[in-house]
Amino acid sequence: MTVSPHPGLQAALPPQRPAPRPGGPELLRSVFRRHAAGVAVITARGERPVGFTATSLTSVSADPPMISFGVGTSSSSWPVLAEAGHIGVHVLGEHQRELAATFARSGADRFGAPTRWYEGPEGVPVLHGVQAWLVGRIVARVPAGDHRLVLAEVVAGDASGDGRPLLYHEGRFNALRD
């Protein structure tokens, strides 16, 4: 006979848990739809400027200052990134949902109007009006399934932009709430 430590109370039953799903692309997508992430645009310059929206930006090391991000090898930007020496990283503000959508949209003219940009350090396209930007020297491209993990050492940047960050959650661009 099991005795409850508190007379009159029955021992709590463990909560029912759903059976785990097997690992795979759909499970990974489902889990990461629930993970809020900051939104960045990665740019590079080949014969033409390229760029894409990324939520995989990570600070890797402070000394030396190093960042990483993932890029799909089927991305239209990959051929340029595969050869580029430097990349631009742009942290977007909540007022830049349309810019994020433009750089996420396949076939879009990402550097045409209304996108405002200029040639920054190392010839990298730098976007106007972002919260912060960095230029990094690519030091490695690590194979990771259908993606490459790009590591870059920071060589220049600016963090003087105003506003609050743009987030990506549940398949949408969102603003941070208090």
UniProtKB/TrEMBL annotation:
Transmembrane segments annotated in the record for this chain: none
BP-aspect Gene Ontology terms: pyrimidine nucleobase catabolic process
Molecular-function annotations in GO: FMN binding; riboflavin reductase (NADPH) activity
Coiled-coil boundaries: none
One Pfam family here: Flavin_Reduct
Location of region: Disordered: 1-25
Entry annotated with the keyword Magnesium: no
Residue span, Flavin reductase like domain: 32-175
Protein name, entry field: Flavin reductase
Family matches, as SMART domains: Flavin_Reduct
InterPro entries: Flavin_Rdtase-like_dom, NADH-dep_flavin_reductase, Split_barrel_FMN-bd
Keywords, comma-separated and alphabetical: Oxidoreductase
Gene3D superfamilies to which the protein is assigned, alphabetical: Electron Transport, Fmn-binding Protein, Chain A
